[in-house]
Design goal:
Number of helices of chain A: 10
Oligomer: homodimer
Number of strands of chain A: 5
Strand order of the largest sheet of chain A: 2-3-1-4-5
Radius of gyration of chain A: 17 Å
Largest sheet of chain A: 5 strands, parallel
Shape of chain A: globular
Distance between the termini of chain A: 17 Å
Helix content of chain A: 55-70%
Chain lengths: ~200, ~200
């Protein structure tokens, strides 16, 4: 019997994490986000910060740099590959445990055929996301728009590299919502009603 | 004061037209779909069948063929361009009249900044759409999968050519729904609740 799992893919700053937590709370099931990083850190030995930086985002590096860095350690895998493997195993284990919400980390693709999925994508326009990341994470040297563009680019590249799928294409999800336009609460209500 | 308008972009066979009609009925507002074709036929002189074939789908032709066919009539526009212009004008006029639902025909892009839009995209996997088009339109010589692939390709090309936007990218809509997975009725309910 496959577990019913909600996967939430989200643009940086769209409130997807908040939506995931609230949905899980209303449904009385766990929401996994930071917990995945803790478990991957335990399994892999990498620090939480390093996993946070490399578990959803392609690094700034060239393909040549990538293969050199792997081979210079005599390894067959880059660090990013090692994190992907550990992260994938953690997600598969969590999905075995029971119904839950999983935020990000390509869980929609990793759990394909492994669970009964409700695949959600949360997005918002740049202005709404820029406002949100300044509220939550504060100002940085880089403008919020630049930070968003950088995160978007690296997340799209990461998703494509490890899943062979296109990020943010409506067909890949059961429901895609513009949280900036609709508001967090309405997104939560729709997802909860679809899960039931 | 801008009118509140629901635009429904949809994959062929996803039930988007049915969803549009039901949403409009529940909200007590008009739904424009075939009516647009009638009006464009009146304005342009093209037959309804010709408009149906060319008002949302790029024709099977090369760019060379296209420019030759335009210039051989001494015209600056192809037939498809003429239909686009008439269709665009009809959609702008309808949007002025009052709140409504408009199915297809790039209305989401045509009405950008012209109305208060709720932009919806309806999709479904190929199996669900193949089943539906056989039920509604009957069997054809071509397999339903082949018919879908052909329609998809031509609609994507049409949309890109006239709007410079990418068809089916979640960010371009406020809500995107998989009608094959969620069912027509749940899609209707979500759209109605978001409009209110």
């Amino acid at each position: 019997m496959k577990n019913k799992i909600i996967t939430i893919s989200r643009e940086f700053g769209s409130g997807g994490r908040t939506i995931g937590k609230e949905v899980a709370e209303k449904l009385g099931i766990p929401c996994y986000d930071g917990e995945i990083i803790d478990k991957v850190a335990e399994e892999s030995g990498f620090s939480k910060e390093y996993i946070e930086q490399n578990g959803e985002y392609s690094a700034h590096r060239t393909w040549i740099g990538r293969s050199l860095s792997a081979s210079s350690y005599g390894a067959t895998m880059s660090n990013q590959d090692a994190i992907w493997v550990a992260q994938r195993r953690v997600i598969l284990e969590l999905a075995e445990e029971g119904p839950c919400v999983i935020v990000g980390r390509c869980a929609d693709v990793i759990l394909r055929d492994k669970a009964e999925l409700l695949k959600v994508f949360i997005h918002a326009d740049t202005a709404a996301r820029a406002k949100r990341i300044v509220e939550i994470y504060g100002e940085r040297e880089q403008s919020p728009e630049k930070r968003l563009a950088d995160k978007d680019k690296r997340r799209i590249a990461y998703y494509r590299y490890y899943t062979d799928s296109e990020w943010g294409v409506a067909k890949n999800y059961d429901v895609s919502l513009n949280s900036g336009k609709l508001g967090i609460e309405r997104c939560v209500d729709i997802i909860v009603s679809l899960y039931k």
